[in-house]
Amino acid sequence: MASLSQRVEIGSRYYRSTETIHSYFRAVLRAVLKLYKLVIKLPDESTPSEIRNNPRFYPYFKDCIGALDGTHIRASVPLSIQGRFRSRKGGMTQNVLAAITFDLKFSYVLAGWEGSAHDSRILSDALSRPRGLRIPEGKYYLADAGYGIRNGYITPYRGVRYHLKEFSDQGPENAKELFNLRHSSLRITIERVFGILKKRFRVLDAEPFWNFQTQVDIVLACCIIHNHIMGVDPNDLLNQGLFEESDSDLIISTLTEREEREEAREWSAKRDEIAQTMWADYMTRNIIMGKGNKEGTSKQFRWTKPMEHLFLEILAEEAQKGNKPSNSFKAFSINRVAEAISERFQVHCDAKHVENHLRTVKNQWQIICTIRDQSGFGWDDNMKMITCDRATYDAAVMAHKKYEPFLNKCIDHYDEMALVVGKDMATGSFARTFADIDLDDDNIDSVPIDCKNEATEEVRTNVSSSGTSKRKRKKTQESVEDEQIKLVSEQLGEIANALKQFTADKTPHLYEEVMSMEDS
């Protein structure tokens, strides 16, 4: 796809404004999106040949129809909503959910969710949409452990070796490890597809300059073009060498029926051994907790840095899952933190401890926000640090001693704090899939390519719809729309006149220029 500078160059060479080139770009983009019905196909219910023809996978995965996962694509959005798009790594991204078949094609894509949203929340949205992800009865996709177990897809065992490199020195030692290894060998296909997509379309890794709705549409268009290329040239050199896996079974021995039975017996004995060890540790921990956590000692609970890190990590994950309605966490989220801290640090931590510490973190966040809103202070987003000169520092600390821990020092776990106690939460209001394209036929051309577009839409959605004020706004809006229609009509007339003056001998040169851009 052409960059902004390329389009400006074309516009100047052929005496066309940037707005005209933008309109050509939008027309082509929309045409590509219309191709989804031809190239984006849901998998059928037959067993994929990649599974049927491989004894490592068949008949164990005979009902598997593909793999699904999420990937983050760079995003550019107005400052007012950037908090919702900040991913765990700190950058602005959109979280894209995709389902693929084992021939490296996309079968479903949902783009546009904010980068802070948890993968499982996006999957729930995809499954609940009227024309969303549909899974045939009895079939399933492979997904990673972050999605949890649900009807229609299978995740690996938690706490068991999974990634291929973890088996490089020693093969699987039990049934769960064998399942995880073969699950990983199949599911890695989607990582390969994401790698091909981003390598083929460098625009997905570049800083976007379109409005966000166009950014979402570009992701969908890239997936459509990818499928088309895979259909006409599946042996394209770009498809080779990414996440290739050896066909040899050096790390997975082919088991006979007798060996499988022996392995099952060995795993049963190992499971008993683990259960006995777990029970012994549990009893020992109860004895320790009984001696060190008598009634009334909850007031003496002390939070360490590792405890705070685990506290924020879990609650940030819960917030991304949507378990923070009305700016407060659900009870089971609080209990999850208490149980995790008790188990990992061998202490007695209950829900009351977690709630008290949450209030402390909220107070810290309020101080941070208050400082950042004052003049004289800067912000280093890479270091997560509030900056100021020496004079400002001395004056601020003298007036507010509580400011000192947050000035000219990296703020630990800032991104997690923003998710846990901040008010920016992902809503999924920008998310689009291919099925949504038809719904926009009547109004897609009216959306201006303006980076302020999302902010405008957000303001519109927040306007009250009450009584008389609504009627007044409606009249005002109609008047504004009339003026806009008149202006657009005049501009269309100018464009029509310009097109009439566009001589025929320049058309071949324009075509050659566009094609040369595609080749480059």
TrEMBL record:
Q: Which InterPro entries match?
A: HARBI1-like, HARBI1_dom, Myb/SANT-like_dom
Annotated ranges, domain Myb/SANT-like = 302-392
List required co-factors.
Answer: a divalent metal cation
UniProt keyword Oxidoreductase present:
no
Q: Which UniProt keywords apply?
A: Hydrolase, Metal-binding, Nuclease, Nucleus
Q: Which domain of life is it from?
A: Eukaryota
Spans annotated as Disordered: 457-483
- Grouped into one coarse class, the protein's main location is nucleus
The UniProt record lists the DDE Tnp4 domain at 68-227
GO MF terms listed in the record are: hydrolase activity; metal ion binding; nuclease activity
Cellular-component GO terms for this entry:
nucleus
Q: Where in the cell is it found?
A: Nucleus
Q: Name one Pfam family in it.
A: Myb_DNA-bind_3
The text of the family note is:
Belongs to the HARBI1 family.
Q: What is this protein called?
A: DDE Tnp4 domain-containing protein
Q: Please give the organism.
A: Gossypium stocksii
Its taxonomic path starts at:
Eukaryota, Viridiplantae, Streptophyta, Embryophyta, Tracheophyta
